[in-house]
Amino acid sequence: MTQETEAPLPDINPLRKQVQTKIKKLELHSSTGLWILALFTALSMGAFHNFDFLPPLSESIRTALGDGPPVRYINWALVMYGFSAIILILTQMASDKKPRGALAHFGYLGAFYLFYHFSEGLSENFWAIFVVGLTILGLQSYHVWNYYHEKIQEQREILVELDKLMD
Amino acid sequence: MFDNLIARAIVPVTIAVTGFVIFVCILLYSFVKSDMTAEASRHLDGCATTVVKSMVSAMMEDDQDAIQNIATNIGTRSDVELLKIYDHEGNVRYTGQEEPATLTATVDSHIKSILQPNSTTFAQTQYNVDHDNGHVSVTLPILTEPKCFTAACHVHSEDEKVLGLLSIGITSTQLEKTLATLRYRMVIFSVMVLFLTISGVTALLRMNLFLPILRLTYNAEQAAQGVAEYDLPKSDHKLGKLNKDFRLLVKQRDQALEDLKAVGTPDRNVDDGSR
User: Fold this and answer.
1) Which of B23, B183, B190 should be substituted to probe chain A, the one whose Cβ sees the most A Cβ atoms within 10 Å?
2) φ, ψ dihedrals at B163, nearest 5°
3) Complex ipTM tops 0.85
4) B6, B8, B13, B27: which to substitute to probe chain A, counting the most A Cβ within 10 Å?
5) Which candidate from A72, A79, A135 shows the least CB-CB separation from B19?
6) Nearest to B140 by CA among B83, B102, B101, B100
7) Would the pTM count as exceeding 0.80?
8) pLDDT tens-digit map of A101-130
């Protein structure tokens, strides 16, 4: 008679820890959109006060920078940017791609604030940039949250499977 | 699950449409406001030029009383808040209407910039629209003409480019009222667009996606409880292949069960017969 010997199962604990670390990492990633949204709100508060908390630019730097572009050109650029950015994020959402570019959008919006500031059109157009910024970054953070939430769910399912194996 | 699915489908559309409509409305309002403000300034500039022409005519006849009368009569208009004529050094010579305190600083800065020979705004008309205090003001230089320095009554040299200045300020109450109406209408328009877009998207998604999925879920529940394929409620064809494949699976299960029954029954008969 042959005695059947069962091969011992490999230790699952390191794998569990790996999955748990991954979940924590994904949870951190899922809140990046909100952090950038908060950063944009802080920048907008500064822009609302016409950046008066910053020291004024020296005359030589202003001369080197030259005159700001006309406000109507910046307005058109903002419309084009807002439209393209929203379409881009919706396309990313539809194709379930990894969310990218939140920081770049923050940079573009900051640049718009600066352009308006130097062209002396910030007070009139502040709310336009603020609303389009909230829309773009709101959509982006929703996409970030949604995408990483799915990934976290996948990892949690793996964790449950591992727990069953351990039992 | 479906609550999540509905939320996930509607939330991005709502954010995108709401944000973009509000943004475009704000920008459109800003465009319209600047166009209307420019139009108000142009209109006031036209009126001021007419006043200057009649004053130059009175000056040519050296009729100081007529100049004062023109200023006084124009100053009686209800919308005129300021009318002043200055000499080439910026001293007030004729007054048709006293300015409100909020206009003083504006008019002073206009005069300063027009009379500075080295400035880029020298001898150029200056405009200001003060939406906060409700004024539109214009200051324009009264420029010299050949008939001025060749006339017998005056001693103006040819080099003297600016003979005087005219400042007119009118109330912008009507402009502000029009802008307020525009704001109010834009808010109503935005709310209507948002309501229609979100309702439309929700209705289309519900009709073409959520309801067929709900029906398929109900069918799956029924099938799991043992209901045969031909007893399942007929579903529409909006989910296409998914729905067909599901029904095929249930049909195959029914067939397999029937086959199993068919195979099982003779065996039992044989067993019964052998006893």
Assistant:
1) B23
2) -85, -30
3) no
4) B27
5) A135
6) B83
7) no
8) 889 999 999 999 999 998 888 888 899 999
